[in-house]
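Problem 12. The chain below contains 529 residues. Write out its predicted structure in token notation.
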Amino acid sequence: MSNQKKYLPLILGVAIAAGIFIGGKLNFSDSPDRLFSTNSKKDKLNRLIDYIDYDYVDDINTDSIVDVTVNGILDNLDPHSVYIPKEDMQRVAENMKGDFVGIGVSFYTYKDTIAVIRPTENGPSAKAGIKGGDRIIMANGDSLFGKNLKDVEIIKKLKGPINTKVKLKVYRKGEPELLDFTVKRDIIPIKSVDAAYMLTEKLGYIKINRFAESTYKEFKKGLDKLIHLGATEIALDLRDNPGGFLGIAEQIVDQFLEDDKLILFTKNKRGSIEKSYATSKGKFEAGKVYVLIDENSASASEIVAGALQDNDKGTIIGRRSYGKGLVQREMDLGDGSAVRLTVSRYYTPTGRSIQRPYKKGHKDYYDEYFDRLESGELLDPEKIKVADSLKFTTPKGKIVYGGGGIIPDVFVPIDNSMHNETLTYLLRRGFIGNFVFEELEKDRHAYDDISRQDFIDSFEVGEDLVFAFQDYLNLRADSKVTFVAYHEEVKQYIKATLADQLFGAGAFEEVFNQRDIMIDEVIKLSDGK
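Solution.
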């Protein structure tokens, strides 16, 4: 195949997609010379879309062509420049905004019916009297049950403008008739801070799952609570945190760094540099901080870890982070869709870029986790590959490296007992959560007399419950699944899920962290061991 034929699909794709950005109609009386002249390339791209619309032999949905082609163009850029179709924009915007308007319940479809796992604490449904285990049968006269009902349709019927009311009919076990509730829709937070509690008398813990618009307020609330409880040290857990807004990460770092310390700087293709410095707002500048990271900590998570590491503030614990040092800006495409385009690189205070290479293509880039796994890097810090040419030095003389994520100060290997294919399968398919829900359904009042803290500290999952879970799997799993080798780990997951469905508000993390080797390492460091 000649080079021209080889690259023809890409060239055509670029041409089609570029038309989205330009818009407008062409005058079809233009001469061929003008159509193909380098001075009229914008006209040429628009004309191509119009030719397909008006003259192509078959009926073609040019919107779908455009969507596919935009993705094709972005596939030839960096891995983090992405297209967001208009049908996904609301969900993406809500996730990053940190809230939405709704009735405030977490649910799953159980036997073709909406089963409430738990109403949002102090949310509209909780205030109206909705309880865990309730089945929502109807909303404003529309049925909400049946095999063909999808979660998207359910959510659409339950959401609506703020302060509008929705009339619900609810089945509650033990009640002879359906119950009627009127729920006034309100703003429902999407939590980005999963937990904030004390690990020891002096060591507080905060878990952040992403950096959304609301994250700093949530974080600050958690930090203030821990300070009030006597925390002089903070474990900031950024494991599995894919990032988010750069500005939110800067605000969080500011709580730990002294005035005028450099947090990061960004540089665009024109060489323009913007620097961000800590201010006088920090409430934890005198305290110790431990930052927990792993191979899934990316972007804004790495900004936090890199800024603290390069300023010799605190200790970074865990495994080498993801390695994303690119900054995106969301740009509206005019039809409800958008593109998040990489517009600059960010650098930590010592001047290092932690972006890992992506020249071999997106597949190799996203498969790097498996390379780390196969190389043994997740178990042995000596297997981490570093380049001497990307060596940097902090003000106190500590050596740090760029070119591929943040390398922790204290390495903690991956815990294969808690991170393995069997447990991952059980969690992703929702088996543990659904099983726990069904167990609670048998007698929700069985836990009425146990407090949240007593449950976390003292409750033990019995062997009978574990065997019941195995029986549950045998009936529902696509293939035979056994967890004999992970018996104790499954117990821990069942207890954590029970805590979450009973109490919410970080109870899952408090239970789960009791078996977490990285948390154990933080506590040892805090105790000086």
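Discussion. Confidence is low (pLDDT under 50) at residues 1-39. Students who got a different answer should revisit the alignment rule from Section 12.3.
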